[in-house]
Amino acid sequence: MLVKWKPGEPIYLQLRDRLRDLILQGVYEEGEAVPSVRQLSADLRINPITVSKSLQLLVDGGWIEKRRGLGMFVCVDARAALAASQRQYFLEHEWPDILTRLSLLGFHVSDLPDKLPD
Protein backbone atom coordinates (compact mmCIF):
# COMPACT_ATOMS: atom_id res chain seq x y z
CA MET A 1 0.00 0.00 0.00
CA LEU A 2 1.66 3.19 -1.18
CA VAL A 3 0.56 6.24 0.78
CA LYS A 4 1.65 9.85 0.36
CA TRP A 5 1.18 11.56 3.70
CA LYS A 6 -0.29 15.04 3.70
CA PRO A 7 1.52 17.59 5.82
CA GLY A 8 -0.51 19.16 8.60
CA GLU A 9 -2.87 16.21 9.13
CA PRO A 10 -2.11 13.45 11.65
CA ILE A 11 -0.86 10.26 10.02
CA TYR A 12 -3.16 8.06 12.09
CA LEU A 13 -6.19 9.88 10.64
CA GLN A 14 -4.83 9.64 7.12
CA LEU A 15 -4.22 5.92 7.58
CA ARG A 16 -7.73 5.45 8.98
CA ASP A 17 -9.13 7.20 5.91
CA ARG A 18 -6.99 5.11 3.55
CA LEU A 19 -8.08 1.85 5.18
CA ARG A 20 -11.70 3.04 5.15
CA ASP A 21 -11.43 3.78 1.43
CA LEU A 22 -9.92 0.34 0.77
CA ILE A 23 -12.92 -1.24 2.51
CA LEU A 24 -15.28 0.94 0.44
CA GLN A 25 -13.48 -0.11 -2.75
CA GLY A 26 -13.78 -3.77 -1.81
CA VAL A 27 -10.03 -4.32 -1.52
CA TYR A 28 -10.76 -5.67 1.95
CA GLU A 29 -13.98 -7.67 1.73
CA GLU A 30 -16.41 -8.20 4.58
CA GLY A 31 -15.16 -11.00 6.83
CA GLU A 32 -11.64 -10.70 5.45
CA ALA A 33 -8.62 -10.00 7.64
CA VAL A 34 -6.95 -6.61 7.40
CA PRO A 35 -3.17 -6.43 7.70
CA SER A 36 -1.79 -6.62 11.21
CA VAL A 37 -0.37 -3.67 13.11
CA ARG A 38 3.09 -5.15 12.67
CA GLN A 39 2.61 -5.65 8.92
CA LEU A 40 1.19 -2.16 8.29
CA SER A 41 3.87 -0.59 10.46
CA ALA A 42 6.64 -2.36 8.54
CA ASP A 43 5.12 -1.76 5.09
CA LEU A 44 4.44 1.92 5.71
CA ARG A 45 7.46 2.55 7.92
CA ILE A 46 5.42 4.18 10.64
CA ASN A 47 5.19 3.65 14.37
CA PRO A 48 3.02 0.69 15.48
CA ILE A 49 1.24 2.98 17.95
CA THR A 50 0.15 5.16 15.02
CA VAL A 51 -1.21 2.11 13.21
CA SER A 52 -2.98 0.91 16.36
CA LYS A 53 -4.71 4.29 16.76
CA SER A 54 -5.94 4.11 13.16
CA LEU A 55 -7.27 0.59 13.54
CA GLN A 56 -8.91 1.44 16.86
CA LEU A 57 -10.85 4.25 15.18
CA LEU A 58 -12.14 1.72 12.65
CA VAL A 59 -13.09 -0.65 15.47
CA ASP A 60 -14.84 2.20 17.30
CA GLY A 61 -16.76 3.00 14.13
CA GLY A 62 -17.94 -0.59 13.89
CA TRP A 63 -16.22 -1.24 10.56
CA ILE A 64 -13.60 -3.73 11.68
CA GLU A 65 -13.58 -6.10 14.62
CA LYS A 66 -10.89 -7.67 16.77
CA ARG A 67 -10.89 -11.44 16.98
CA ARG A 68 -8.79 -12.54 19.88
CA GLY A 69 -5.77 -14.47 18.69
CA LEU A 70 -6.74 -14.06 15.04
CA GLY A 71 -6.39 -10.37 14.22
CA MET A 72 -8.67 -7.70 12.80
CA PHE A 73 -11.43 -8.42 10.30
CA VAL A 74 -13.81 -6.31 8.24
CA CYS A 75 -17.27 -6.42 9.82
CA VAL A 76 -20.32 -7.74 8.01
CA ASP A 77 -22.12 -4.83 6.30
CA ALA A 78 -19.11 -2.56 6.88
CA ARG A 79 -19.06 -1.44 3.27
CA ALA A 80 -22.71 -0.35 3.29
CA ALA A 81 -22.33 1.34 6.67
CA LEU A 82 -19.20 3.17 5.54
CA ALA A 83 -20.87 4.29 2.31
CA ALA A 84 -23.85 5.65 4.25
CA SER A 85 -21.58 7.40 6.72
CA GLN A 86 -19.46 8.93 3.96
CA ARG A 87 -22.54 10.09 2.01
CA GLN A 88 -23.84 11.80 5.15
CA TYR A 89 -20.45 13.43 5.79
CA PHE A 90 -20.29 14.62 2.18
CA LEU A 91 -23.76 16.16 2.31
CA GLU A 92 -23.12 17.89 5.64
CA HIS A 93 -19.51 19.02 5.24
CA GLU A 94 -18.40 19.04 1.61
CA TRP A 95 -21.51 19.72 -0.46
CA PRO A 96 -22.23 23.14 1.12
CA ASP A 97 -18.72 24.29 0.16
CA ILE A 98 -19.20 22.99 -3.37
CA LEU A 99 -22.53 24.82 -3.68
CA THR A 100 -20.92 28.02 -2.42
CA ARG A 101 -18.09 27.67 -4.95
CA LEU A 102 -20.54 27.00 -7.79
CA SER A 103 -22.50 30.08 -6.81
CA LEU A 104 -19.37 32.23 -6.69
CA LEU A 105 -18.46 31.06 -10.19
CA GLY A 106 -21.93 31.82 -11.49
CA PHE A 107 -22.94 28.22 -12.14
CA HIS A 108 -26.52 27.09 -12.09
CA VAL A 109 -27.46 23.45 -11.51
CA SER A 110 -28.59 23.23 -15.15
CA ASP A 111 -25.04 24.19 -16.23
CA LEU A 112 -23.58 21.07 -14.65
CA PRO A 113 -22.93 18.00 -16.79
CA ASP A 114 -25.28 15.03 -16.46
CA LYS A 115 -22.38 12.65 -15.95
CA LEU A 116 -18.72 12.78 -15.10
CA PRO A 117 -16.20 12.80 -17.94
CA ASP A 118 -14.37 9.51 -18.57
Please provide a written account of the structure.
With 118 residues, the chain is mainly alpha-helical. Helices cover 53% and strands 7% of the residues. It has helices at residues 11-24, 37-44, 48-60, 78-104, and strands at residues 64-67, 71-74. Strands 1-2 form a two-stranded antiparallel sheet. The longest helix is centred in the C-terminal third of the chain and has 27 residues, at 78-104. The model has no long low-confidence stretch (mean pLDDT 93).
Give me the secondary-structure topology.
Elements: H1 11-24, H2 37-44, H3 48-60, E1 64-67, E2 71-74, H4 78-104
Helix pairs in contact: 1-3, 2-3
Secondary structure category: mainly alpha
Shape, per Cα inertia axes: elongated
Q: How would you spell out the order of helices and strands?
A: HHHEEH
CATH C-level name? Mainly Alpha
Our count of helices gives 4
**Major sheet: order of its strands?**
1-2
Query: Biggest sheet, in brief?
Result: 2 strands, antiparallel
Give the DSSP E fraction (strand runs of 2 or more residues).
5-15%
Average per-residue pLDDT, rounded, comes to 93
CATH superfamily: Winged helix-like DNA-binding domain superfamily/Winged helix DNA-binding domain
Low-confidence stretches: none
The radius of gyration over CA amounts to 18 Å
**In the CATH scheme, what's the topology name?**
Arc Repressor Mutant, subunit A
Give the N-terminus to C-terminus distance in angstroms: 25 Å
